[in-house]
Amino acid sequence: KASALVFFPDIRSACEAVIRLKPQPVAAVELLDRPALRSVQDKAGLPPVIKTLANEAAALLIEVRAATVDDLNARISTVHHALDGVSTIEPMQFSTDPATCEMYWKVRKGTFPSVGAMRKTGTTVLIEDVAFPIASLADATLDLQALLRQHGYHEAIIFGHALEGNLHFVFTQDFGDAAEVDRYARFMDDICKLVVEKYDGSLKAEHGTGRNMAPFVEMEWGKEAADLMRRIKGLFDPDSQLNPGVILNDNPKAHLENLKPMPAAEDIVDRCIECGFCEPLCPSHRLTLSPRQRIVSVRELSRRKVAGELPGTLAEDFAYMGMDTCAGCGLCSTACPVGIDTGDLTRRLRGRQMGDSLRSVNAWTGRNFGTLVKGSRLGLGVGHAVSGVLGDNFLARISGGAWKKHMPLPGKGPVAHETTGDPVVYFPTCGGRIFGPSDRDDAQLGDVIVQLLERAGYRAILPEGFDQLCCGQMLASKGMAAEADALSEKLEAALFAASDKGRLPIIMDASTCTARMQKQLAGRLKIYDFHEFAVDALLPRLHITPQQAPVALHINCSVRKDGSDAKLRTLLKACASEIIEPAGVTCCGFAGDRGFVVPELNQHALRHLHSALPANCACGVSTNRTCEIGLTAESGINYQSIAYLLEKCSRPGDFPC
């Protein structure tokens, strides 16, 4: 595939290009008017010229596809020849770089939500799709722009599948004001006249008629055809039970009644237009609620509160379906065109609704973290003693699923040695200090990393009192931001001292914790996730003998969000000849303690994992200890930090991996 984002001085030039491209071997041609481009022009990676375009400018996003590179180049050449003589602002350039092409298309798909995100709180965003004959596309687009301005929809954008004459127009509307509804009614009347009477176009191009266009079906098709449709509908659905009022509706004001409110709820999510782009990435989607459904629920609870209505069972149901089973992973924000992280909403609501007794317990945890670590290790030891007698299944059953198969042994912190290597600071995070390996023959994670550092010629410096320290992530996930920040500040002070006031690099061994401290420190200290440091600083100093059997890779949420997945793959490629990255697995759903408290979330998120792994899979790797616990329990394959595989494959001598 190859894509080009081509800028034209005006709509007419862009539409002339569309007419020329129609008979050519192009896979897609997308039209964007200047307001559509303006709505996304601040997205990273777009050509700088986009911010300098005049108000009349437009763009085409063109894609060509072929089975071979030679055929692709031939088709690109054909497109260039077809557009000879058409005025463009810059010469047309196709890109075959997957990241560039993906960014172009992500921007195109993000225009609709971007407009919605900029709307006034309390208003909704509407999208319609109409179609015109290709020959009339330029005039029709200009008329449509003029009509939007005439009715005061100055924020509106137009984009569409130009090869088919299909145009989407997006605008914001306040349905809580009678005068605004009247304006909308006049606009819809004029739109239908423009499309049907002036251009003999279609009121719906690719999407269903819906309630908004149902009153205008007879206007478009004529009474005879509409009556025939009604007769056919009556034969199959005499009682009008199937989608009543949709497609066919004899009420001329159906599009102005029963309008859905979009009340203000929480500033974190008020920009959401409920587009649903977030849903495929959410681990609780189809178990309880998706991010979109969480936001809809919060809006309805807010509406009921303002209206003086009782929350009813919605509030009770939301406690489990909305908050308890939200992983808070934030992957939704990576798909959201405006970056809404529904996890932030969940954390806020958790903190707001936390009872005094639970808040006191969590606050005590923050003040006595070392005691919590010791108590957790003791609990793991007792659990293993009981499971040794009664079995894992019994213990899992009586603990409500909190006890897992292959539950880790109690962990402990590492021991650093006095060496002459290059000094680096290593902070072993609490996940690896509490949860040790699942196999008694395996070393503790901290000791593995210290050994790797020393093998590569580094000297590990451990922060003083590290076993009492935590980044605060566990409290932040519960909505206790202030208490979490206090833990972060205490850790920062210890890291500052250990790193000689920031001179030395700092390594952490859990991606979630690394991401939190990188955000908290905002560049004040140089902090690296282990896999990032390993690629840059360990691989050049180690001799690697790759593992021959397949290795499963799980890229956790923090790595996906911060974009360090490329380095993780680079590290694994050095250590494994065959990598299995199961499709359909995003967030594992363990989410710190969620895998213990609501184990069904972890099970649901990994429901496709086991079948995706080959029988000869040697092991699994990731970069978060709690994620690895859930992955191991659900797959039956031992998932560990990638540090274990790197240590195994870098042992001196001809070690057979």
Could you walk me through the main structural features you see in this protein, from its secondary elements to its overall organization?
By secondary structure, the protein is α/β, with parallel strands linked by helices. About 45% of the residues lie in helices and about 10% in strands. The protein is built from 29 helices and 14 strands. A 6-stranded antiparallel sheet has the order 1-3-2-5-6-4, sandwiched between helices. The protein has a 4-stranded parallel sheet with strand order 8-7-9-10, with helices on both faces. Strand 13 (about 620), helix 28 and strand 14 form a beta-alpha-beta unit. Helix 5 (about 135-150) runs antiparallel to helix 6. The longest helix is centred in the middle third of the chain and has 22 residues, at about 370-390. The chain is globular. The mean pLDDT is about 95.
Q: Care to give the gist of this entry?
A:
By secondary structure, the protein is of the alpha/beta class.
